[in-house]
Design a protein that fits this description.
The protein contains 25 helices and 29 strands. The protein is an alpha+beta fold and about 750 residues long.
Amino acid sequence: MAKKRRKKKARKYSKRRLRVVVALLSSAAILLFAAAVVLIYHTLKFTALVDAKLQGEQSRREAWVYARPFELLSGQRLTRGELVTLLNDLGYAERSALADEPATFSVAGEDIHILRRGEFRVPVSVSFDDHWVSAIHELRGKSRLDSLSFGSVPVTTLFGANRTKSRWVFLDEIPEHVSQAVLATEDQRFYSHTGLDPLGIARALVADLMSGELRQGGSTLTQQLVKNYFLTPERTWRRKILEAYLAVILETRAEKDEILELYLNDVYFGQRGSFGINGVEQAAHIFFGKSVRNLTISQGALLAAVIRSPNASSPFRYPNQIRERRDIVIQQMVRAGFIDEIQGAEAASQRLGLVEGTVDRGEAPYFVDTLRRELLASHDANQLQTRGLVIQSTMDRHLQNAAQKAVVDGLEEIRPKLPQGAQELPQAALVALVPSTGDVVALVGARSYGTSQFNRALDAHRQPGSAFKPFVYLAAFENNKARLPTTMVVDEPTTFRQGGRSWTPQNYSRRFEGRVSYRRALALSLNVATARVGQDTGFENVVALWESMGMSSRLEPYPSLVLGSFEVSPIELATAYAVLANGGRKVEPRFFTSLEDAGGVVEERPVSSERVASRESTFLVTDMLRSVISFGTAREIRARGFQAQAAGKTGTTNDTRDAWFVGYTPDLLTAVWVGYDDNRPLGLSGSQAALPIWTRFMKVAVSGKEKARFSPPPGIVFADIDPASGKRAVPSCPSRQREAFRKEAVPTELCPLH
C-alpha cells in the first residue's frame, strides 16, 4: 500500500517536473524566437542604416556652400608663395614635376606649373616678377593667357547637427604615409580583422575590470567609425555591445578601403574656435595651411597623434606634448614596417610646422552665418537640411581670406596709436560687395570668430559720422539741378535753430575755411559747410532720400543728422554707398546666386535693383569723393601705394567712438568700421583706424584691375574752371581744375579774378 502511494507520488511529481521542463523549454523557445526576431529586425535595420550611409544618402542631404570661381589675372599683385597657399586652399596637390594628374601643381624654379581640374585640362605656367604675376601661358603651345579660371569649390556644410568644418577627399588622394600613421597608432591589424580585434578587446577588458570603470578603448578603427558616425558618444556596456555588433555588419557591407576612407574623412581632430574639425583634409588646412595631399611623414604622424585625445592634445595649446606623441607614432610606423628607421629619424627631427592661422581662414564663418540667416528667412529649415542643396554663394574665397587678414593686420597696426592704457584692441567689421549686383564677395564680423561670433557687419548699429555726408550732397543735387560740385558755400561759425533747439557745430580741425566749393567742403569733411548745404537743401529732403534707399534707420529732419548722428550697420552703409557706385540704382545685398538640390532642381536668386537717384547726380558725388582720396581726408591711401581710381569717404563721430571708411572702385565697394563694443572712445579718426584696413584689402582685391575707370553718363561733361572763382578758367588763371557738370549747367561766365 505504501509502495502504491509512493509510485503515485512519483508519477505525480514526474508529471509536474515534466510540465515545468516543458514550460521552461517553451519559454526558452519563445525567448529564443523573440531574440531571433529582435536580432533579425535589428540586423535588417542596422544593415539598412549602414547601406544608406555607405551610399552617401546622408552626405547628399547636407547643404554645401560653394565659393565663386577664383580667377588669376596676368598683372595681378600676388607672390609665388601666396599662389601656392591659394592652390592648397583649392585642394591642389603639389608634385615634384607636373604629370597628367588633375588638380596638381609643381614649383619649377621661379614659375608654378598647374594642371587644373574639370574642363580646364591644359597644363599652364605662371611666372612672377617680385610681387606680381608677370605672365600666364600654356606649357605646350606657349600661348599667353590674360587670366586663369579655377572652378567653384565647396567651402563648408551649411546645416548640420553640429557646425563642423570638413572637406571630403578620396582615399587615393590621401598620401599612403598619412593613412599608415593612423593605422599604426589606431589599428595595426585593420586589414586582417573582421571588425573586432579579440586581442584589443581582451586587453581593454582586463584594464576595465581592474579599474571598475569602462575606460579603455580596445576599439578597432571600424568600431571607432561606428561610434562616431552611427551612435551617440555615451560610455555604457550596452552601447559597447551595439558598437561591436554594428562594426561586424559594417565589415560585411563595405570594403576595407571604403571603411578607411570614411574614417579619415569623419575622424574628429578637436575644436578650433567654435567649430569642430573633422577629417584629415580639414585638419591639414587648419594645422599646416595645406591640403592633406601635400603632408610630409612628420605632419601625417602629428595628425595621427591628435586622434586619441583631440582636445587634450591640441597642437596649438600643447606643442611639447604633441611632439612627444608624434614621435611615438613615428616609432610605431617604423615597428609596423610602414617606414624604415632612416625615414623615421628624419621625420622625428622635423619641426611641427604649424601655421599661425585660425578656423576663419578659407571658411568665412561670418559669411556662412549670414547666408544661413538669409536662407532661413525665406525657406523651410527642414527642407534646407534634407534636399542635398548645392548653394552657389557670392563669396570670393581669395578676397575673403584677404579681408580677414586685412582686419587682423590692420588692427595690429593701430595698436601703438590707441589711447594710453588701452588693454585690448578694438573690434572691426568689413563688407565688400559688387555695386552693380549687390554680390557680397567678402564679409568679416570681428577680429576672430573663435573669440566672438557676434556679426558686427550685420548687427552692430553705430553712428556713421561724416561717412553720411555724401548723401547730403546727393540730396542737394537731386533737389536742385543748378547745384554742382563748383557751387560755393560759406564755412564759418554758425548756429542752426529748428524746433526750439539750437546747434553750433565745429569742424574736426577746429578751423574754418570761409568760402569753399561743394567739392572742397566734402573732400575736407567740413561740418559747418555741410550743415549749410543740408539747410539749403531742406533736411526733410535729405531724410526722404535716405528712406528711399530702404535704410532701417529712421531719421529726424534736424541739422545734426548731416553729421551722421544716428545708427546704421556696416552692411547698410555699404548698400547706401552702392547707390553712388551704381549710377543711382539701389541693389539688395546678395549672398547666393542659386540653389540646386540633389534632383537637379535649380532656384535662382536674381539681382534686385531699383532707381532711387539719377545717374548724373550720383556721378557728381562720386567724382567729388575721388577728391577725398586725392587731396582730402583720405589722401593717405595714395601714400600707402593704392593707385587705382577710387572714390570714398572717411567717417569719425565727434567723440571718436566710431571710425569708418567706405570706398569703391568702378567694380568693387568696401566698407570698414572700427570701434569698441562697449562704445568707449577709440581716440582715432576714420583715416587713422579704418582706412589702413580698407587699403590693405583693396590693394589685393583690385590687383590686375587697376586700369578700371568711372564712366560718366551721357548727361555729364567736363570743363576747366578756376578753383577760386568756380568760373571758366582763362589763360591767366594760375591754376585750373577739370570739373564735372551737367550738360545744361556748364558755366559760360569767365573767371573774373584773373
